[in-house]
Design a protein that fits this description.
351 residues; alpha+beta; Butyryl-CoA Dehydrogenase, subunit A, domain 2; four-stranded antiparallel beta sheet; 10 helices; 10 strands; 15% strand
């Protein structure tokens, strides 16, 4: 399917309508209160418009190029909500790859700790383990988003690394939410498991880990491009309103150069994300392009948002103009699922 099809344009338009009706009014509260995202059903909003169904076998828009287009659009309104959708879609794709099905909401991914990441094949103990059919351990900084669904936990099993699906019910699963600056729609928590009984488990291979990191990196790259695009637009709009030095600042060479540099960097990043999505191959165990693109998109986004703040001068640090939020969102996205340095090191190791 082509992203330029009439059906896809209608789908994108419906996302804009959803944003104006439901997302935009909720963004100020989400931004001020990390717990607010848990009191409104962001998951239901995304599901109702069809975003969370992207990538499923019965979805009309199942190609990765369509997914990144949608995530970029959502992130123009709120990068946290875009990232929530990114984690949800990636979770669905990853669990389906492992043959695990979730009957309710997407699973919150309890990803590997820093020292576990590239050691799936080397026998390094995980922070959680399966013994006698029950799961115990602790996972830090789990992105809860707005789900309330099960957890997909990376753990040590009898025959190696496994991913186990665990429902959050009962006193055997403890959730301790922690504040997260920036993309506040992404609720973050430390989660402890004490003899929890998984509903299903599946073994994980090294190539499965690479697949998960690649999809997350690709989808979050799209979110970074979306939030940066809005920051550039805000800077351009403000430059047409601010009068200084005898003219509107849009006429100042320094401002024109700054905005054009960021527009060009952003376009290059967006083109790289689109190309990576078009060439995505789930059977490739060394999908390094997605990791490199994520690092590049994150850098372009942070730079664009910082420069948008500078265009606004002192006003750029105020909530009223919306660019400080874009910077916090871009900074948060830059360390998900891993920071850029770690992603680049992994990309080099996989070559």
């Amino acid at each position: 399917m082509n992203n330029d099809s009439e059906y896809f344009r209608i789908f994108i338009d419906s996302i804009g309508k959803l944003a104006k009706k439901s997302l935009i009014p909720a963004i100020p509260e989400i931004d001020l209160d990390p717990g607010y995202a848990g009191r409104i059903d962001l998951f239901r909003m995304l599901e109702d418009v069809g975003i969370l169904g992207l990538g499923s076998p019965d979805s009309e828009f199942s190609y990765f190029s369509s997914i990144v287009s949608v995530l970029s659009k959502v992130s123009e309104y709120c990068a946290g909500i875009g990232a929530l959708a990114a984690f949800s879609i990636a979770s669905n794709l990853f669990l389906r790859r492992l043959g695990i099905s979730t009957a309710s909401k997407p699973a919150a991914l309890c990803l590997f700790e820093e020292d576990e990441l590239d050691l799936v094949e080397e026998g390094i103990p995980f922070a959680a383990s399966i013994k006698d059919g029950t799961l115990s351990g602790r996972k830090r900084s789990v992105i809860l988003g707005g789900y309330g669904g099960p957890f997909a936990v990376f753990a040590d099993g009898k025959d190696g690394t496994e991913v186990c699906l665990v429902e959050p019910d009962g006193d055997r699963v403890s959730i301790e939410e922690t504040p997260l600056m920036g993309a506040r729609a992404l609720r973050c928590a430390d989660v402890s498991f004490t003899g929890a009984e998984p509903s299903s488990c599946a073994p994980v291979r090294h190539e499965d880990v690479v697949y998960l990191l690649s999809t997350l990196s690709l989808f979050l790259s799209a979110c970074a491009c979306g939030t940066a695009a809005r920051a550039v637009d805000i800077a351009r709009e403000y430059s047409k309103e601010r009068y200084q030095g005898g003219s509107m600042i849009e006429q100042h060479d320094a401002i024109k150069l700054l905005i054009e540099q960021n527009r060009s960097s952003l376009q290059a990043a967006a083109d790289a994300v689109s190309a990576c999505a078009a060439r995505f191959d789930p059977t490739d165990a060394k999908m390094t392009n997605c990791l490199r693109v994520k690092a590049a998109a994150s850098k372009a986004a942070v730079n664009a948002c910082l420069d948008a703040i500078q265009v606004h001068g002192g006003y750029g640090y105020m909530r009223d103009y919306g660019v400080e939020k874009r910077f916090r969102d871009a900074a948060t996205l830059s360390v998900l699922p891993l920071d850029s340095t770690r992603l680049l090191l992994l990309a080099d190791a996989l070559v």
